[in-house]
Amino acid sequence: MAGHYDERDPMGPMTLEETERFINRALLRENGIWKWVEAAKYPRSISLSNGSRVEGHPMSLLDVPSLAAVTGAPNIRFDFAIHDSIGTRAGGKASQDLYIDLEGVLLDGRSTKRRITLTDPKGQAHFTALGILLSIERILGWDGSPPALGGFYLPETLVPLETAMTRIEQFGIQIRREERDGEPS
Question: pTM for this structure?
């Protein structure tokens, strides 16, 4: 996964301060082994939607261990990259872009490589707030299902995938899915 930050997207001082902490030392999973790494020493070249490439560095976000718990995937990392966003490149406002590259084996045994790109034209703060809203709706039962039982939840296990995708599209986030040939980005 790669979160793409556009410098034209306003970020509050607390978020900027947290970002520095997130990208200093990062947790990632490589070949089934958890690693704490110095982010600057683990760059990754990320292919953007327009074909250009940008360098990203891993971040320590809860998404990494929670996705490992849900999927069992042996390789998971969340990279942070700074570059002009899809919105800026289209001549509009800065967007928050999230690139999710998947590689694995389908239930029918076929190998596949896929990319899902999520773009929030309202920026990072809106995208983050929406994730929180979906979790609150699910916990309180405002999504039409009974309220969640007490306990500790991870967003990836709390909100069903189809529900999350439908809701984020309702809030204007654009989702693009594509099959990918060759190496994942």
Answer: 0.86
